[in-house]
Amino acid sequence: MRPVRVIPCLDINQGRVVKGVHFVELRGAADPVEAAQAYSDGGADEIAFLDITATVEGRRTVFDLLRKVTAAVSVPVTVGGGIKSVEDVEAALEAGASCASISSAAYRDPGMVSEAVGRFGSERVLVAIDADASPTCPSGREVYIDGGRTATGTDAVEFARQMAELGVGQLLPTSKATDGVQDGYDLQLTRGIADATGLPVIASGGAGKLEHFYEAVAEGHADAVLAASVFHFGTFTVRQVKEYLRDRGLTVNL
Q1: pLDDT, tens digit, for every residue of 63-83?
Q2: In sequence order, what are the residues at sequence separation of 6 or more whose Cβ sits closer than 8 angstroms to the Cβ of residue 95?
Q3: Helix, strand, or coil (residue 79)
Q4: Taking the C-alpha atoms of 67, 71, 73 and 75 in order, what is their torsion angle to the nearest 10 degrees?
């Protein structure tokens, strides 16, 4: 079994790390470079850098800040937010990111995803899927775009299958309902996408207790666990999460 990756997430807004609930109610947490360096030094396997308002504001990712973050850490960085073209993917990689996360643009322009995979390789392209509960979708989860603001009517698991067919290397589903609430990941969403695609899936949105990280892997079939609030506000360290997973029989890199 591959080691479970533990990934702190830096949600960036106006140059600061912030954290919200249900994608809104943002509050400040830290300086991005300082936070990234601390997580890198503290044993994070990767860092996610998400410019959470770039798409809604119609602008590109803050690549200058990304460049500072990637220069300060010794672990891979995945960047998302405002990545809407192959040129944006290229700019992200040139700024030091190891992987570009495409979300709204993947829904609006799947051909761009295919082109990015062809140019940069599957391991450099991730699709992030924001979703919420829906009684009309077969999987019970509906894709949302524009930072979770716009419902699409598209089934999240079916959309994940489509992205897998385009050759993306990983998927990052985040549940609007569980984001920031700390009551646990949306295991139905995570497991549905993991089982339907066979791709590595990063569980995101809702970690509040150590057991939530274990459940994401054991029940949600995730390959990695991403969290923000519990790390930013000192509830747990990355090492504590890894030791807990190890003690429950999972493989981690300590």
Answers
A1: 999 999 999 999 999 999 989
A2: 63, 66, 67, 70, 79
A3: strand
A4: 70
Write 20-26 long-range contacts (CB < 8 A, 24+).
20/179, 20/180, 21/179, 21/180, 21/181, 22/148, 22/176, 22/177, 22/179, 22/180, 22/181, 23/52, 23/130, 23/147, 23/148, 23/149, 23/176, 23/179, 23/180, 25/180
**What pLDDT, in 10s, does the model give residues 91-128?**
999 999 999 999 999 999 999 999 999 999 999 999 99
End-to-end Cα separation, the chain, in angstroms? 15
Helix (H, G, I), strand (E, B) or coil at 240: helix
Instruction: Using the predicted structure, report yes or no on whether residue 21 has a pLDDT greater than 60.
Output: no
Reading phi first (left if > 0) and then psi (alpha if -120 to 50, else beta), residue 249 is in left
Q: Which domains does the chain have, with CATH numbers?
A: 5-247 (3.20.20.70)
Beta-bridge partner residues of 224: 5, 202
Q: Is the pLDDT of residue 41 over 70?
A: yes
Q: Mind telling me the catalytic residues? A: 11, 130
Return d(Cα 109, Cα 69) in angstroms, integer.
29
